[in-house]
Design goal:
Two copies of one chain form a homodimer. Chain A has helices spanning 9-16, 20-27, 35-48, 54-59, 77-92, 108-120, 134-141, 166-180, 195-210, 227-238, 252-264, 283-286, 298-314; strands at residues 66-71, 96-101, 123-127, 146-149, 161-164, 185-188, 220-221, 246-249, 274-276, 293-295, 322-325, 328-330. The longest helix of chain A is centred in the last third of the chain and has 17 residues, at 298-314. Chain A has a six-stranded parallel beta sheet with strand order 2-1-3-4-5-11, with helices on both faces. Chain A has a four-stranded parallel beta sheet with strand order 7-6-8-9. In chain A, strand 1 (66-71), helix 5 and strand 2 form a beta-alpha-beta unit. Chain A has 13 helices and twelve strands. Chain A has 354 residues and is an alpha/beta fold. In chain A, helix 2 (20-27) crosses helix 3 (35-48), helix 5 (77-92) packs across helix 13 and helix 10 crosses helix 11. Chain A has three domains: 9-52, 434 Repressor (Amino-terminal Domain) (Orthogonal Bundle), CATH 1.10.260.40; 66-164 and 297-324, Rossmann fold; 166-296, Rossmann fold, CATH 3.40.50.2300. At the A-B interface, helix 4, helix 5, strand 2, helix 6 and helix 11 of A face helix 4, helix 5, strand 2, helix 6 and helix 11 of B. Strand 2 (96-101) of chain A pairs antiparallel with strand 2 of chain B, so a sheet runs across the interface. The structure holds a DNA duplex (30 and 30 nucleotides).
Amino acid sequence: MIGPRPVTIKDVAREAGVSYSTVSRVLNGYPHIHPDKRRRVLEAVDRLGYSVNLQARSLAGGHSQVIGLIVHDLGNPYTAQVVQSIDEALARAEYELVLHTTHGHHHKEAVYVDILTRGMVDGLMMLIPLGPTPYLQQLHERRFPYVIICDHQQYDDFSPTVSTTSRQGAYDVMRYLIALGHRRIGFITGRPDFISAAERLEAYKAALAAYGLPLDPALIYTGDYQYRAAYTATNALLDLPQPPTAIFAANDLSAFAVYDVARSRGLRVPDDLSVAGFDDVPQSAYMHPALTTVRQPLLAMGEAATRLLMDTIADPSRPAERIVLPTELIIRESCQPPAHSERPFKPSAQPKGE
Amino acid sequence: MIGPRPVTIKDVAREAGVSYSTVSRVLNGYPHIHPDKRRRVLEAVDRLGYSVNLQARSLAGGHSQVIGLIVHDLGNPYTAQVVQSIDEALARAEYELVLHTTHGHHHKEAVYVDILTRGMVDGLMMLIPLGPTPYLQQLHERRFPYVIICDHQQYDDFSPTVSTTSRQGAYDVMRYLIALGHRRIGFITGRPDFISAAERLEAYKAALAAYGLPLDPALIYTGDYQYRAAYTATNALLDLPQPPTAIFAANDLSAFAVYDVARSRGLRVPDDLSVAGFDDVPQSAYMHPALTTVRQPLLAMGEAATRLLMDTIADPSRPAERIVLPTELIIRESCQPPAHSERPFKPSAQPKGE
DNA sequence: ATAATAATTGCAAACGTTTGCAAGACCGCT
DNA sequence: AGCGGTCTTGCAAACGTTTGCAATTATTAT
């Protein structure tokens, strides 16, 4: 790289006729500066087009104004949305974003955490679908500011987290389906090693139990949040001697697969088969019929996480706050009472354990 | 931030019984090192769990191993896909990614370029839908490695670029539609200030002209690549006294809006209205009917751009390479010959100006 | 006026690394 | 044994900034 030597703090100092430490202090909002010199410095900065070298600032013990974000997979809309809102919130707070994707390789997390927290960033946000890990303990002990974003609530007790009531969301879907009169509800799970998948499965079972419905293991098919697996799952479910009248897919993408299988078999949604998803990705509203699903407050999650991290950076020893954001059942067109039910099933007024 | 002082190169040196410069050289693959010392250093690194401080390395004139990526908007699937593939390619090359979104604010680009190229990154990638700008000229003069990614080809003559034959792609759609027998083809444009939008509009007109079809301005409706505008556009198009038999939307998202409007009016796609999109976002294959569209090689674009940037970093004065990747017409189910055409229109064997 | 206090400033050290330079060790030759 | 050369190695300077310390100057209270 060639060309004009970048202008440094010393150039500004010379131009303004002050020492370079004064320039630094002006730039960092240090209180006791003579107004006259402050003005001269600011003018020189402007004239020379100076901007700070973040590496040097960070090395010298200042802040880097950079936040690290580690995500599991950029490819799905869920992540993309959260990342976007974090990015926007961070931009407002004048922070840069260093993005790291583990591409599903769990073991890379620790490596990235190590690289990033080694002076490169002022704080860390992690959007990972798995449970607590040893490096969080270290981070906590080092008082390094970080925030966990997840869609499940089960976590350690020292990490600041932003999560959603997604377990409740899954429960809500089930309650809705049951209230419509469905008694055989198929469930396509998420990727089993993700805690969110386990939580939704739990909710499925809990709702069944609460309303006194039998749990038929044949109705539960293990997916992985991807289209392919859900496609297979749906076929298996519909091939059952006693197929379900409704299918609850652990995420919207899986629900799309249910749509397609239904269509390929000449089944109409919702007339012949009710379908519910989870996440409310933008596409879900455009599908036909529009998908009934659970909305996760993705934008709010990113914003809350950013705010939480900013607070933690401001005071690294503040107690870990845990923000839980509400999910919302979005009722659209993909569910109706089952074809051959005489009347919608009325759940008892007060189901146990809700 | 508290806790154990991070282990530095000096700690490693002490542990291995060598000088710290030797450690640095080992770590940077310097050739003339005694095998014995190299081993001792590597062992010490392992034992102490050392990893380099990128700020310091970068400050001292080394490489930061960080690449900056400036995108216009993370929210759309197009960008998300390209970013993902860049991220993967970069990870393979052992680079970090600093991501910047301008959120559509054109003027922020220059600011981000300035911040990032000020030592923070070794190279820059820009995914921006607009034309050449002054800061590119500067970057070029400074010999700072950068790559432009765009889906249009018109650019300056010194910037390394990765682009697609998207103009040809639009032309292909039109040729296909015309070959099916459509004579009144509606066009919903992209955001007018994006060059890609202008290129596609040009292609639309060029195809019409090449096949001797009249250009009816009423059939061209200005959109902005978003759902909302396309929805309005479709309604306007279908309200025409002589509505089109096919609609070509400048991107898939807009095509989805066409689907919905058609549905809301009781029109069947493709029986009553043919629809074609552009981009081939993943969702397009799942729609019903599956959308005929133009696939942009998003993954290949990310990879090519990364490779190009790596090459440029290795030799900053190499001549600007321009990679043009082919688009591909993906014929699915959303188009068929118009309802009332007696027979498919046969374009002359050799249309002019193709 | 004078002492005490507060505001303002500059110097120099530090942050963790890379790298030019020079010195020492080692090699194969004659 | 002595010479020129190539390997290895360590020292020290540099990268651009922040910040503790001490010195200087302005302000206030007595």
